[in-house]
Design a protein that fits this description.
Length: about 325
């Protein structure tokens, strides 16, 4: 079978490898139909990921059809349409035993430190796949994965209907957060420095859209939150300054949810956190969010179709990387 493998940074090619086979009793074999290219795939390709190992078959946003099942599989039958989970975990450590397998001490992430789904076939344990509706096309269904990341951030922030959520940065990540948050019925304030993204944020369901370059940014956020401050801030800018800013702006008893991997230092005095009893919360990948997001897709609460800007056959990966270099794209999906 063919696969797309990064041999070393900046070197990706189509390779011929032996077709995968069912090896354990609980596995399903999937004929891959579509896979998304995500920011993290691009950073693994270019050698900027602190967690990737090489050589590596990329791909963690992967949909396909169940082609074969092992003998003890009960959740699927041949012909089911599925999306696969990004990770595998040990099921035995503290995190795993407390419903936090996404931060397992022995975490394996597909396309990062184990091989992913940029290949014609893949096998996964049945617990690592989720059924998707047959009327949802495989390319669109790829987008379920990024929405699980957004759902995780909302759920880590304990988002509820009476919250005022500040989504700081309304790019690809922020836009998914806004759409998931809308399903909670809360008030949403989007901040971005690009006018186009602010217009999009409004269209996606933000109650307020504020330009991050405004000299009165803080005052505008205060006004949009009845002078209390947002009760949850989700940081999709992910740099040291955004963290500092959100700790400043969040309201009493509020939560600041961080999603970035920036290793630089933010300067935050403890007084700011203790005096208002803030929660500073990390959010990584997802736990148990696929079924929730699939439900939002099935009920048309999330309408992701126009998020896809380009579709390429996986053997045309060079063309996909030309588009990435041009920076003029939203979501690129590969077909298999
Ligand atoms: Zn992704
Ligand atoms: Zn574990």
């Amino acid at each position: 079978m063919k696969a797309l493998r990064v041999e070393k940074p900046n070197n990706i090619s189509v390779v011929e490898i032996p077709k995968v086979r069912l090896e354990k009793d609980n596995e399903i074999l999937i004929k891959v139909k579509a896979a998304g290219i995500c920011g993290s795939d691009i950073s693994i390709y270019s050698g900027q990921s602190p967690v990737a190992t090489y050589p590596r078959i990329l791909g963690h946003e992967v949909t396909g059809i169940v082609e074969e099942i092992s003998k003890s599989v009960t959740k699927f039958k041949v012909g089911d349409h599925v999306i696969i989970k990004q990770t595998e975990s040990c099921n035995n450590c503290y995190a795993c035993k407390h419903g936090r397998d996404n931060v397992c001490v022995d975490l394996k992430v597909r396309g990062v430190n184990i091989d992913g789904g940029y290949c014609e076939y893949i096998t996964v344990p049945e617990t690592s796949a989720y059924k998707i509706p047959k009327d949802l096309d495989f390319k669109t269904a790829v987008l379920i994965e990024p929405f699980t990341i957004a759902f995780q951030a909302c759920s880590r922030g304990r988002l509820q209907k009476d919250d005022t959520l500040l989504v700081y940065g309304a790019g690809a990540l922020g836009a998914t957060v806004i759409q998931v948050a809308k399903s909670f019925g809360c008030k949403i304030i989007a901040v971005d420095i690009e006018e186009e993204k602010l217009i999009q944020a409004k269209n996606l369901g933000a109650t307020y859209a504020i330009n991050g370059k405004s000299p009165t940014l803080k005052e505008e956020i205060q006004a949009a939150s009845e002078n209390y401050g947002p009760t949850i801030c989700i940081d999709s800018v992910c740099n040291p300054k955004s963290f500092e800013f959100l700790v400043d702006i969040v309201g009493n008893a509020g939560r600041v949810v961080l999603m970035g991997f920036d290793t630089r230092v933010s300067e935050i005095p403890q007084f700011k956190i203790t005096a208002r009893e803030l929660d500073i919360i990390g959010s990584r990948l997802q736990h148990d969010k696929f079924e929730k997001v699939i439900d939002l897709f099935a009920r048309d609460i999330i309408q992701p179709k126009d998020m896809i800007s380009h579709v390429f056959h996986f053997e045309d990966i060079e063309k996909a990387f030309d588009v990435i270099a041009s920076k003029q794209f939203r979501k690129i999906v590969l077909t298999f």
